[in-house]
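Students often ask why we bother encoding 3D structure as a string. The short answer is that it lets us treat folding as translation between two languages. Here is a chain of 154 residues written in the first language.
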Amino acid sequence: MKKVPSPSFSAYKPASLTSSRIKKENRSVNTCHELLLCRELRRKGILFQRHVSTLPGKPDIVFRRARLVVFCDGDFWHGRRWSRLKLSLKKGVNSPYWISKIASNIQRDKRISSSLRHLGWSVLRVWETDIKNNPVAVANHIMMRVSIRLTKLN
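And here it is in the second language, the structure alphabet:
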């Protein structure tokens, strides 16, 4: 994957020290929705690896034999319902920073997914609220995708 430099947000200032501290404490791995999904997949007896650093984007969940990766995307950070979120951000504090930040994350996600597909991987992105609302349904969907991929590869 071609290395794309991270955008600089140095021109932007945090709305407050408190908001800056809170945002810095957000996890990038082992989020509650990710752990919830992993627990459900383990209950179903399906084997997987986590946070494989040798793959582009360091996917949250990896099924090597099926060549399927899963990203558990947070609704805010990865821009779910982007047009609505963008409008909401425009009304808030520090809107240029947040709009730029989330738009950059969306573009990075697209580049990573494209890179993985180019390497022969199937990419599945699942949203935080979908996992929290029904982890069983999300796990079942993943199991179905793993099964389909294994059938195609064998």
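Translate back mentally: The mean pLDDT is 89. Keep this in mind for the problem set.
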